[in-house]
Write a structure and sequence with these properties.
alpha+beta; nine-stranded mixed beta sheet; three-stranded mixed beta sheet
Length: 295
């Protein structure tokens, strides 16, 4: 699912939705061995948690880190983990789409509807400070989707966004469209939490307890279902070379946002060079900036 819960001060709204210079990213480390990158504000820590991580524990940690990152008391973080079988409901969750309570059900602060997490699914919690990267919510989600799509391409999976349908999609071996990944983000005072979930080799029958993200017409799939043998570690490795492009796309979007603010002398000259998020995003971002300053 591609969904957001975005908060600025007391206001809450739900909306669906190169290389990085001098920024280094090391291979992911297991829990307790975080990779600290020094010397540049754009560096991001990576962490991989082994075993199954409790959802309430993960949520509590994300909320704590969100505050620490905003106050610059903690580095930004990419946290890769795996949950035990569970369902989460977003702020738009429809109770009729929860078909079974065979697994624990958790309410979560993100936008969107019901989704499943469980063994064999790589969950990536992306905790970035957009105040120093890109103050544009839609562009962040677009870039995050692109990162997942690029990582899947490392396995020769031609994943894509589908107009009018949320999520990351691909074609099965039988030629049917199916969802292989979900995006769910919450942003508070420009610091992100939650992130993506990609099906590597989960038990796909577990998705039968919900209507995934409210879309009943299409199935879900996984790398294993596509006939691709891969581990969570393999997918983590695929995320690494595609990560700099993700950050660079955020930087490009932020540059375009500034260029295309009303009154900018470069507005007409650079109109054709703006990233795919759209010129109207600049106006939205400017209004959001004003709201944030009042918070």
């Amino acid at each position: 699912c591609a969904f957001i819960l975005y908060q600025v001060g007391f206001y809450t709204l739900s909306t669906a939705g190169g290389n990085l210079c001098r920024s280094t990213v090391n291979r992911p480390h297991t829990t307790g061995r975080r990779s600290a990158h020094s010397g540049h504000s754009m560096n991001v820590d990576w962490e991989v948690s082994e075993g199954l991580t409790s959802y309430p524990d993960a949520l509590a940690r994300m909320e704590s880190l969100q505050t620490s990152i905003r106050e610059q008391d903690a580095p930004e973080l990419i946290w890769l983990l795996e949950h035990p079988p569970l369902y989460t409901g977003g702020t738009s969750a429809d109770p009729s789409e929860l078909l079974s309570r065979q697994f624990p059900v958790y309410d979560t602060g993100r936008g969107g509807r019901y989704t499943y997490h469980g063994p064999g699914q790589r969950v990536g919690y992306v905790m970035l400070d957009l105040a120093k990267r890109c103050k544009d919510v839609r562009c962040f989600v677009h870039a995050l989707e692109g990162w997942v799509i690029d990582a899947l391409a490392e396995f020769e999976v031609q994943a894509y966004r589908a107009d009018g349908r949320i999520g990351i999609w691909c074609n099965t071996r039988h030629g049917r469209e199916a969802k292989i990944g979900a995006i769910g983000v919450r942003i508070r005072r420009w610091v992100t939490m939650h992130g993506f979930a990609v099906n590597i080799n989960p038990d796909l029958s577990h998705f039968g307890g919900i209507v995934p993200c409210g879309i009943a017409e299409y199935p879900v799939t996984s790398l294993a279902d596509l006939g691709i043998s891969a581990s969570l570690s393999d997918f983590d490795t695929a995320l690494l070379p595609t990560f700099p492009r993700f950050l660079n796309n955020l930087a490009k979007a932020d540059a375009a946002r500034i260029i295309f603010l009303p009154g900018s002398p470069q507005r007409q000259d650079r109109r054709r060079d703006q990233p795919p998020c759209g010129r109207r995003a600049a106006c939205r971002a400017q209004a959001e900036d004003r709201d944030r300053e009042l918070a």
